[in-house]
Amino acid sequence: MADPPVVRWWDFDRDAELTCPRCGWRGTSWLAEMELPDDYEERVDCPRCREVLLLVTEPTDEETKAAAAAGNAQAAKSLYWAERIDAAETLEEESSLARQALWSYGLAPDDLAKAPTPLVCAECGREDSSGPGWKMERAELNDVVAYCPQCWARKFGESASDA
Predict the structure, then answer these.
(1) What residues make up the domain containing 114?
(2) Which residues of 116-155 are buried (b: 16+ CB within 10 A; e: fewer)?
(3) Helix, strand or coil, per DSSP, at residue 36
(4) Of 60, 57, 20, 61, whose CA–CA distance to 42 is shortest?
(5) Nearest residue to 131 (alpha-carbon basis) of 145, 113, 143, 149
(6) Number of CB atoms found within 10 A of residue 99's CB
(7) Which of 31, 36, 98, 109 sits CB 3.0–4.6 Å from 27 for a disulfide?
(8) What is the pLDDT of residues 20-50, one digit of tens each?
(9) What span, in angstroms and rounded, lies between the C-alpha atoms of 58 and 55?
(10) Do residues 152 and 135 make contact, with C-beta atoms less than 8 angstroms apart?
(11) Is 163 part of a structural domain of the chain?
């Protein structure tokens, strides 16, 4: 048998009719079997004889951006969610840095779960996700309260580097 056709992801039409060259089955890829044989393509197989009907290559970031810019709604949605996932991963990395900063202040591991992330100054409300120079104190009910360096100095009369 000849090699199956290769289709780029954003050009793939799941509703297009396919015909199996081996057994003659006809239908859309919705009725066929889709498998993920590796990281960069999906394989559409005939549901009757398992002949590979089509290979669909996974899109690159550039292809997704181009398809979205050209008006492809699915590409735009995919790009939207990819950006949200990247933002969440960045926030998680920043959160990890803030927790490392708290650890450096000598707080116990169970205190880290109580700390605000991002750090929010209890006095002025300023937010910071990295925490250098910030100080923590245990408040009532064993909560952890964060202070930016300026508010710490005003409240306790010492700079963040003094303590």
Answers:
(1) 66-156
(2) bbbbbbbeeeeebbebeebbbeeeeeeebbbbbbebbbee
(3) strand
(4) 57
(5) 149
(6) 17
(7) 31
(8) 999 999 998 877 777 666 665 788 899 999 9
(9) 10
(10) yes
(11) no
